[in-house]
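Fold this sequence, please.
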Amino acid sequence: MGLALGLILPFIASLIYYKIGFSHYSILSYYQSFLTARMLNKLIAICVVSNLVSFIPFYYFKMDHAAKGVVLGTMLYAVVSIILMFT
């Protein structure tokens, strides 16, 4: 449960960020502009902060396996962000 939430929540945060600030672009050109400007890793970093929304309650209510899943999802996004930074 935690891993799925840790992977899906940043994507949902990215869509919310798109709707708030960039809705005049198409969704494809939105992501393409981040790729062209080599800033997709920065978008990922901003959106991964949304994992705190799920991690904190899991940690507080002692749902350790779910909290570990959220951390694993965050680490996977970190690896992708680092790869994007150096390519």
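The chain has one domain: 1-12+38-87. The chain is about 80% helix and 0% strand.
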